[in-house]
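Journal club side-thread
Mid-discussion, someone asked how the predicted structure for our own chain would compare to the paper's figures. Pasting it here so we can look after the session.
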Amino acid sequence: MVKKGLLIVLSSPSGGGKTSIAQRLLRKDKNILRSVSCTTRKIRPGERDGKDYFFVSPSRFRRMVSERAFLEWAEVHGHCYGTPRSWVEKKLNKGKDILFVIDVQGGRAMKKIHPGALLIFLNPPSLSVLRKRLLGRGSEGPKDLKLRLKGARWEMRRGRDYDYRVVNDSFSKAVSDVMNIIRQERKKRALDVH
């Protein structure tokens, strides 16, 4: 009998490092697969449709919502994001761990749908460090930056409800901390099965 995979949610405020840490986890552990979400936002330089996200029109997204094709979905910073249900269930049943790189709204929704989901929140060392990281990306204008920092404060408060919180002060230490949490949870859940 194949052990069901672990559903892992990794969240942080925008610029908090969730994408970079997720990429490193995926390289380190081949049993972890990244969930690919649908989004209505525009593609950013370097992103690929079907690998980073499935980029869809707002009308197609609304149609998918009405067809209940998403495990969870949310509107964040004026764009919609949703997780395709059938793909996730198929991989979990094959014993693969599925990594969700989503905001706290999505994480909280995921915990309601899958109470056994493992929620890990990445905290920036401070809001000033987060602001510097966002400015360094160069993808936000002044209006977007202000919106993202306001959202970060809200998300950091909601991140307190997660199973684990990791401060992303040192990239390599944050990756190691998250990987150790995942290993610990795998062991704990393997013992619960027996």
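Post-session note: The chain is about 45% helix and 20% strand.
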